[in-house]
Amino acid sequence: MNKLLTFLLLLSSLVHSNEISFYEIKDSDDQSSEISFLLDKVSFIKSYSLVDPSRIVIDVYQSDLKSDVEEKYNYPIKLVRASSKEDLTRIVIDLYEYVNWSKPTQEKTDEGILLKINVKKNKKLKNNIRDIVVAIDAGHGGKDPGAVSSNNVLEKDITLLIAKELQRTLRDTEGYQAVLIRNDDSTVSLNDRYQNARKFGADAFISIHADGFRLASVKGASVFIWSEESSSSVARNLSEKERKRIQAQIKNIKSYDFNEDAARDLYPNTYKKKVDQSKELGTKILDQLKRDPFTKIHKQNVEYADFRVLKSVDIPSVLVESGFITNPEDAKRLKTKAGRRMIARSIFLGIHNYFKDEPVSGTLLENYQNYLNYEIQKGDVLSEIAIRFGVTIDSINITNNLENKPIFPGQIIKIEI
Ligand SMILES: [Zn+2]
Hints:
Layout: H1 3-16, E1 19-27, E2 32-39, E3 45-50, E4 55-60, E5 64-65, E6 69-72, E7 77-85, E8 88-95, E9 99-101, E10 105-109, E11 112-121, E12 132-138, H2 155-171, E13 176-180, H3 190-199, E14 204-209, E15 222-225, H4 228-236, H5 240-251, H6 260-266, H7 268-291, E16 303-304, E17 317-321, H8 328-335, H9 337-357, E18 371-375, H10 382-389, H11 393-399, E19 412-416
Parallel strand pairs: 1-5, 12-13, 12-14, 14-17, 15-16
Antiparallel strand pairs: 1-2, 2-11, 3-4, 4-8, 6-7, 7-8, 9-11, 10-11, 15-17, 18-19
The chain binds zinc ion.
Zinc ion binds next to loops.
């Protein structure tokens, strides 16, 4: 090997070095235990569960484990072990029984990036099972109001309200978990938005907008995805100044964050698959928006656009323009709870149809029985639940033998969709 190549390899190993070590196992409550590892950087991680014997596997790519790990723990954890081969670290959690588990999250702490995974005892399980995690990104916020309508409705407020409506449906539906990229009027950078989706271990990323246009007559909803190819064709038409401004923003990621741009070269197949999955997810959401009698459609097909917030290498990512806030009709619709609810419902049903068609192994939707379990919340009324899921009150009454009996908080009802 020539000297230059050796030097380059050494240099790249120094640049990419991402040390990983065992941190701790502790009980988070009497049912759940939390296993954690410490990393230098937010990493590309794949996790899955296996049967016979029951175990969970977490692969941490481009990482360097200093010494092998073998940690025994209390029931239901038999052993936590980890070893490294080349630049892949494999963590295996051996279990005595099947558990509910959560996808690993990567949290920034003073000590580094804490990779955490939770396992929860559940005697009733016939398999290890986890929720599908949906990251909901309410566009703009804080210092950035987004578009503003003629009567001073701010895009950032509309996007947050739709995000919270969608979160509510996902949160109270068995098999799903929702995380909000922002849950108040705070300023979040574009880089932090997709970086946070990775840190939460999201299975899908939905960015919600309601932008403006110079012509007030332009109206309707549309759905966008991102690809490197479309982005570079857009970039060719930009001015040099604009291109430099975007480049500067892209480079401005934190030292411990994951470099999504470099990852496209490292994992080309993962990236290709993600573009296809995003298109599928976007199409499913658009199909639902088309069924919504109140929402007009701006673009009939899923479009490519240079929205960098969607550039994760592996998380299917979609941007939903719920309408043009600069159009009086759209602004009026999005100002009402009913109008926003219809957008949230279309997104939810689109997500649900996507995961029904492309089930993630080890999730509830893998063996979907044509109904969802929804937990009644305080203040819920059947008519509202029916609208949120796009079903009739009658169908809920019949499926659940409710016979017009009152519903109560904590009650689980089946929703056939
Ligand atoms: Zn926007």
